[in-house]
Structures are given as structure tokens and as C-alpha cells.
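Please go through this protein, sequence plus C-alpha cells, and consider how the sequence yields the C-alpha cells. Keep your notes short.
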Amino acid sequence: MSSPEKEITFGAAVKQAIAEEMRRDETVIMLGEDIGSAGGVFKILVGLREEFGDQRIIDTPIAEAGYVGLGVGAALTGLRPIVELMFGDFMALAMDQIVNQAAKLRYMSGGQATVPITIRATMGAGRSSAAQHSQSLHAWASHIPGLKVAIPSTPKDAIGLLKTAIRDDNPVVVFEDKMMYAVKGPVPDVVDPIPFGVADIKRPGDDVTLIATSSMVLVALSAADELAKEGISAEVIDPRTMVPLDKDTLIQSVSKTGHAVIIDEGCQSFGITGELASVIYDGAFDYLEAPIVRIGAMDVPVPFSKPLEDATIPNEHDVISAVKGIL
């Protein structure tokens, strides 16, 4: 019998996952800028410091390289730190610690050392935060051997994937779209960890496969609703994790539908859409009835101007036009 469900926001789901893991395991700590007294810049962590104290919810200076490095060291000594990067853009300041330390130490020590660190980073444009606070850099992390990368698109997935990340003995980067923190979704009373490398079919369909990540899953679902009114059945798939990637589910879906549109908010060039298209071409080429269409963000710094910013982000109409074009 399934657990009863409740509607909570994506932000509340992130907080719930962290709180449940901290109650379950006293080695879980959290570090980040303004996460304690302020509850985070997006206010989704309010109350955690009061419950767990400032020895486990640790406010840090504005020094990403420093406190990410502190998290790596804490992980090496047996703790399970969750490190928050206020904006995913600030990964650039801590890339040496993430790429050359966290991602490499287990390999370089022959498995004698583990680095069970979870790095939470925001992504996504749409709130006029301008070029330095609006990028979607998940392709960066996905390119680095030794890192796992999770990108939840629903409150339930946020809880399940975060729990898995925190319990993993390897470094995991979890990207959360800042524009989704207020979005609500159904969540059971009990949410178990969601295994990495298992895609989720958000909507079944027969005519075209829409593969989408993060907030683009909502865009794809909205487009699928509109396409259904015209008799077009779209299957919507959320990979949920880039590393490891569930290639089989993507290939099986496209082999069934014969058409694929890939939607991601990262810049299109050299990004996630290209990698996913490669997976499909390798595994389902003989079943394709039309070329794969990739829809990514415009290859420009994200503008501050709201009308210009919106023009850079994939939307429902882009997806509908792409589907009609290949059908």
C-alpha cells in the first residue's frame, strides 16, 4: 500500500531531505554562505540551524574555494558534508577543489580514501539575476570522471536523489533550478532514496520522445499537453542523473517513437543536448524516422533584461514547433 501524498514545494523538499538525513546520520553536516542565520539566500533552509545547531549547520565566509576544500577534508575524515554553492556560477571559484581534489582522491588512493561530499548548486535563468548568477553549468560537472551528477525536476525526486547523494561514498553534485523552489508537487509521507542511473518516464507516449532536464521537464510536459490536443502523443523522459546516465531508457523510448527532441537549459553548444543526442544516434539510429532536434539555451551570457533573458531560454513553443517540424 502506497504512502499518502501531500503537496509541497521543491524548496521544502530539499529542506526535508537534508533534515531527514541529518536526523538519521550524525556525521551529516552542512556548510555554506548564509545557510544558518538567514536560512539560505532563497530561504528554503529556515529552521535547520535551530534544530541541528551551529556545529552542524555552519555559516561560512564568502570563500567558495576555502569552504569547498573544508568540505573535501571533512569527507576524507569520515563526515558526510553537504556544501551549498549559493549560485552554481560560483563553481568556477572552487573548481580546483571539486575537479582536482574531490573527483580524483578515491582513484588516486586506490580506493583507500573516499570523499562522500554532496555539493548543492543552483542553476537556471528567469529571475533577472544577470550573467554571473543565471548559468546552467551541469555539463561542466558531468564532464569530470569521478563526479556523479543529479538534476531533480520534482519535489519527490529532489528528496530521493538528495538522500542517495548524501549516502554515496563518492562526490555528487546536485543541481537545483532556482526558479523551481516555489513549484509544488505530490510527495509521499515516506520517500526512499532514488537510485542513480534510473531515468523516469514522466508521461508515456508513442509518436515522439521528449528528453528534458530540470525545469525543462515542466516545459516538455506542458508542450506534450498541447500536442495531445492535436492528436500527437509525446513521451516525456527525465534522465534525473547525468552521471550515471540511464542510456537504455532513452534508447528504448526513441526506438519505439522514432523521433526525439532534447531540451536542456544549458547553452546548446558542447553541452548536454549533444551528449544525449549521441547516445540516441549510437543506440537507436536504425529506428529514427527524422533527425534528432536539440533545444538548448542561446549561446550568450544571460542578459539582465527580462525580455532579452526570456528569449535565451527554451520554451513550450520551441518544443511544439520542433515536434511538428520532425513529424
